[in-house]
From TrEMBL:
Its cofactor is Mg(2+). One of its GO terms (biological process) is ubiquinone biosynthetic process. The lineage of its organism: Bacteria, Pseudomonadati, Pseudomonadota, Alphaproteobacteria, Hyphomicrobiales. This is 4-hydroxybenzoate octaprenyltransferase. InterPro entries: HB_polyprenyltransferase-like, Prenyltransferase, UbiA_prenyltransferase, UbiA_prenylTrfase_CS, UbiA_sf. The keyword Transmembrane applies.
Amino acid sequence: MSGGTAEDRRVADAVSGHWVDRLAPRRLRPFLRLARVDRPIGWWLLLLPCWWSAALAATRAGAPYPDPRHLLLFLIGAVAMRGAGSTYNDIADRDLDAQVERTRSRPLPSGQVSTRAAAAFLVGQALVGLAVLLQFNGVAILVGIASLLPVAIYPFMKRVMSMPQLVLGLAFAWGALMGWVAVFGALAAPAFWLYAGAIAWVVGYDTIYAVQDIEDDEIAGIRSSARLFGPRLRLAVGLCYGLAVLCVALAALGAGVGPVGFVGIALFAAHLGRQVLRLKERDGQGALTLFRSNRNAGLILFLGLAADTVGQGWPG
């Protein structure tokens, strides 16, 4: 790792003024950046399908509210596994990241962290994730372990397929299965519908994210859905988001969600529609803002589903 100046260097697309850059010990800052702690949107987007699934499972089970213990475990697990996945991705992509303006300031391509230190850090974060996973039932543990397959292959997909966002969707949407299986010890149609909807949501928002890198990706030969869709970008993202809303609605119907939950789904759909209307093909900064707004979209959906569960469980 290099000296103090490098350790103080903020990653290009991190949140400005984040506590990592102001308060964390200098020697830890590159590792916190490697885990994307300074970019919390990542763990939010990993977490939210878990919470949606927990709310749907609570409704189907007739519980008065989503299990708070499960919600907390999913939060800890999302932060740990987001960090582990990002570290793994950066190890695999360190040469490509050095060719892209937005990513060359990351700890590995900039030389702030060695590959060996990053690998050790990856193992530590993965062990935290494993400790969280072991708190669930046996079937949930197996389902959670299976998520490692799309996580493992994703970094290499941008070299061989035009839409690597689809593989990212398989990984980031996995929580849509976990909330359900944690309650029932088995999977059912609503969980699969929710998973399909979450995959479509991930492909949509990560296509928006990829708009930032179109020019650099063209030079480096990196493939992305933003490059693939080109002038049809808004239509493609709109179709992804429309499919996401449809699948989430089918999952809600199968789980017995009531009117309050469907109000949440409608507000979720409206938020996604607003993103599509504001999307521009070569507006990188605008794309980053729209991408980050998906935290709010996902929270709107969760609050609607959770409120419906509470409402159905309220004594009549």
